[in-house]
Design goal:
By secondary structure, the chain is α+β, with helices and mostly antiparallel strands. It contains eight helices and four strands; from the N terminus they run βαβαββαααααα. Helix content is about 55%, strand content about 10%.
Length: about 220
């Protein structure tokens, strides 16, 4: 059975790797699993066929035989559990890697998304100029904590894991803001993630789809 994921027909980020299907692609590339992509338009995302897969009309979704999943964290967790390469064999290390997945999505990403959303949807509001620095400082508070925890380590807890995959994906959203550059070890951490061959393959495939070209 071939794994099928959905992705934006035309990504809002122009194919820069910030759309959440990139996280799923990256996970599949890390565990060497072939997959197909079904591109969906914004209109198709709100139609019954797609809503049957994702009740909130978003991407990505994951299909493999009778199994259909939505929510990026759930999909990456499923891939990591099913295929070797993204979770350690040791039970305690495995639990810590899963914890970092949750930390990326539940603790680090929310303030980042607040800033991104505010810039896109609230940038023209009269109070925006006052609120933006507050939102940026909330991100800095989280990054200070993460920076201390990472220290000089290559990855968050030993070898690269699904926890790193999710954390790097989340931190990539800060690229345009310049905030990540304030934390040298975190910036280097993200660069290491982007340098992984599996990430490069995932990024290139997402960019090719956005540009209307065959996947490399």
């Amino acid at each position: 059975m071939t794994i099928i994921i959905t992705a934006f027909e035309r990504s809002p980020d122009g194919g820069k790797g910030l759309a959440r299907d990139t996280r799923v692609r990256w996970a599949l590339e890390e565990v060497n699993q072939p997959y197909e992509v079904r591109a969906v338009s914004f209109r198709a995302m709100k139609e019954p066929a797609h809503l049957a897969l994702h009740p909130f009309g978003q991407i990505p979704t994951y299909e493999n035989g009778d199994l259909a999943l939505f929510e990026t964290g759930s999909i990456v967790f499923h891939i990591a559990q099913r295929h070797a390469g993204l979770l350690p064999d040791d039970a305690n290390a495995r639990a810590r890697a899963i914890t970092w997945m949750f930390a990326a999505l539940n603790t680090v990403e929310p303030p980042i998304l607040e800033l991104v959303t505010a810039k896109i949807l609230e940038g023209d509001k009269s109070w925006s100029e006052e609120r933006m620095p507050l939102k940026a400082d909330r991100i800095r508070d989280r990054l200070k904590q993460l920076s201390v925890r990472l220290g000089d380590a290559e990855w968050l807890d030993g070898a690269f894991s699904a926890g790193d995959l999710m954390m790097v994906s989340v931190l990539l959203r800060l690229k345009a803001s310049g905030i990540l550059d304030e934390f040298r070890n975190l910036s280097a951490y993200v660069a290491r993630g982007k340098a992984r061959p599996a990430y490069k393959r995932a990024f290139d495939a997402q960019l090719a789809l956005n540009n209307g070209k065959p996947a490399p």
